[in-house]
Amino acid sequence: LTGYVSTHSSVSYPSPITLSRPSDVLVLSPTHTPRHEMTNHPKANRYISSKPFKALHVPGLEDDFYKNLVAWSPRNHIAMVLRDQIFVWNDFESRQIGSYCTKADAQMCSITWLDNGRYLAVGLSSGIIEIIDGTTFTAISSISVHSSKVGTLSGYGSLIVSGGRDGYVTSTDLRTKLKVFSHKSHNYEVCGVSVSEDLQFVASGGNDNRVCIRQFTNTAKPLRIFTEHSAAVKAIAWNPHKSGVLLSGGGTADKTIKVWDVNKSSSIKSVDTGSQVCNLAWSPTVNEFVTTHGFSQNQIVLWDFSTMERISTLLGHTSRVLFLSVSPDGQNILTGAGDERLKFWHIWPQKQADSEQRGGFVQSICQIR
Questions:
Q1: 93-137 tens-digit pLDDT
Q2: Smallest Cα–Cα separation from 71: which of 110, 38, 36, 35?
Q3: Per-residue pLDDT at 3 exceeds 80
Q4: Which of 203, 242, 259, 355 sits most deeply, having the most CB atoms within 10 A of its CB?
């Protein structure tokens, strides 16, 4: 599974995934994109390729807006749910390193990496979260968290933040298996959750079209509830460069990206994207973010946050782009769609320094609870 070589390679999937021919796995793997296929944007001050540097055929990747089935770990391991199994690939070594199939009578609906990639959390349709060893890919524990489907997960050190169809947003400590907090935040299914880089705030978006913000140190009462979206909110992410600033994206009937400030009672900016907003992620190195979209273009859009203007629009998927993950070095993104394709794009500059030091914050939050 590689985009760093210029030849196609054969990959064998374990049952039940079957491939009709080896070339189905690796669709595109050029090592260089010609200059005429690159965008030079003055704001970006760099070339951005209009083509993915790697594209993979992944049979069994579901076309489901309410699931989150792809995750990229700090160890450069990529986990993906294909039908009823999880497959994990080492992107450094370009090979499959493991797979997992739950023994529970439930569907796998969401995944996220924990504790710097040591563990993988799997949210099930039964409301249970399974914890998988990231080396042996065996189940080591399960935690009953929600009363129904766990459709969205985020991992922060040893904390698991989850959102369920029951409308609850819950934080669980992996070490103790105890809930740090659990609150009814939405009237319908929770579609997306995000925790701020400084672990001060947790935000959630739901199928009730609402955005709910709580403070980690006082989660009992919502700090803010925003109701300006007119469709489900799955895309949601805190700005890592400015504390207290949140972005959210609305579904098909909404199509907007909204900017929120925890100190304001309404959005401070709203941009109509023209299509369903499926995902949103920030660059760790520059004040930019990326969104993925559905009908009609199924596009990937790179934005300048300071102006809320588009830097580049990338096309390559033939159905809505439901899954998005950022590489551990912060330079690349991985997108997944209902066309059963994973595509890798190089869009951001290299990190100057690694500032992801969350362990102390996580420990202090857990001790407070």
A1: 778 899 999 999 999 999 999 999 999 999 999 999 999 999 999
A2: 110
A3: no
A4: 203
Contacts of 279 (CB under 8 A, 6+ apart): 234, 235, 249, 291, 292, 321, 322, 323, 324
Nearest CA to 192 out of 66, 277, 284 is that of: 66
CB 52 within 8 A of CB 343: yes
Token pair for residue 317? 């998927």
End-to-end CA distance of the chain: 43
- Write the pLDDT tens digit of every residue in 325-363: 999 999 999 999 999 999 999 999 987 654 444 444 444
CA angle 205, 211, 214 (to 5 degrees): 100
Whether 359 and 366 have beta carbons less than 8 Å apart is answered as: no
Q: What is the 3-state secondary structure (H, E, C) of the chain?
A: CCCCCCCCCCCCCCCCCCCCCHHHCEEECCCCCCHHHEEEECCCCEEEECCCCEEEECCCCCCCCCCECEEECCCCEEEEEECCEEEEEECCCCEEEEEECCCCCCCEEEEEEEHHHCEEEEEECCCEEEEEECCCCCEEEEEECCCCCEEEEEEECCEEEEEECCCEEEEEECCCCEEEEEEECCCCCEEEEEECCCCCEEEEEECCCCEEEEECCECCCCCEEECCCCCCEEEEEECCCCCCEEEEEECCCCCEEEEEECCCCCCCEEEECCCCEEEEEECCCCCEEEEEECCCCCCEEEEECCCCEEEEEECCCCCCEEEEEECCCCCEEEEEECCCEEEEEECCCCCCCCCCCCHHHHHHHHHHC
Q: Which residue did the predictor score with more confidence, 264 or 353?
A: 264
Q: Pick the closest to residue 300 from 48, 57, 74, 70 (CA basis).
A: 48
Among residues 180, 187, 137, 176, the alpha carbon closest in space to that of 162 is found at: 180
Tell me the C-alpha distance between 18 and 22, whole Å: 10
Name residue 225's beta-bridge partners: 212
